[in-house]
């Protein structure tokens, strides 16, 4: 299961203005779990609305210095979902405080049970 572009405002960063003003963070997640295709029952899968809510909760939650820590918190939360065996999380910080022109800053981590 893949969710891309989950966007929320967070207050992560090492600079006081990042913690004070906040900025958008964009998160992509890939969840690996046994996919049941013979039933049509939500109980046999992972609810992607709940996954998106988990991601948003971390991004809008406790400020962290590093997006690496944000990605790790998201991965831990998603791995706690019973069926999920492996997760890949990418956290994008499109308004990172860099003086040079850039397209994106992101960090990607993979975690498994």
From TrEMBL:
Pfam families: FolB. Pathway: Cofactor biosynthesis; tetrahydrofolate biosynthesis; 2-amino-4-hydroxy-6-hydroxymethyl-7,8-dihydropteridine diphosphate from 7,8-dihydroneopterin triphosphate: step 3/4. GO terms for molecular function: dihydroneopterin aldolase activity. It catalyses: 7,8-dihydroneopterin = 6-hydroxymethyl-7,8-dihydropterin + glycolaldehyde. Keywords: Folate biosynthesis, Lyase. Coiled coil: none annotated. Residues 1-111 form the Dihydroneopterin aldolase/epimerase domain. Its EC number is 4.1.2.25. InterPro entries: Dihydroneopterin_aldolase (IPR006156), FolB_dom (IPR006157), GTP-CH-I_C/QueF (IPR043133). It is an enzyme of class 4 (lyase). Catalyzes the conversion of 7,8-dihydroneopterin to 6-hydroxymethyl-7,8-dihydropterin. Belongs to the DHNA family. This is 7,8-dihydroneopterin aldolase.
């Amino acid at each position: 299961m893949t969710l891309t572009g989950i966007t929320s405002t967070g207050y992560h960063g090492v600079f006081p203005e990042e913690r004070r003003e906040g900025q958008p963070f964009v998160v992509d997640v890939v969840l690996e779990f046994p996919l049941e295709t013979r039933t049509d029952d939500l109980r046999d899968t992972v609810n992607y609305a709940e996954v998106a809510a988990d991601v948003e909760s971390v991004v809008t939650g406790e400020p962290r210095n590093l997006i690496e820590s944000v990605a790790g918190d998201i991965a831990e939360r998603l791995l706690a979902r019973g069926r999920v065996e492996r997760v890949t999380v990418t956290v994008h910080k499109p308004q990172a405080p860099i003086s040079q022109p850039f397209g994106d800053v992101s960090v990607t981590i993979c975690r498994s049970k």
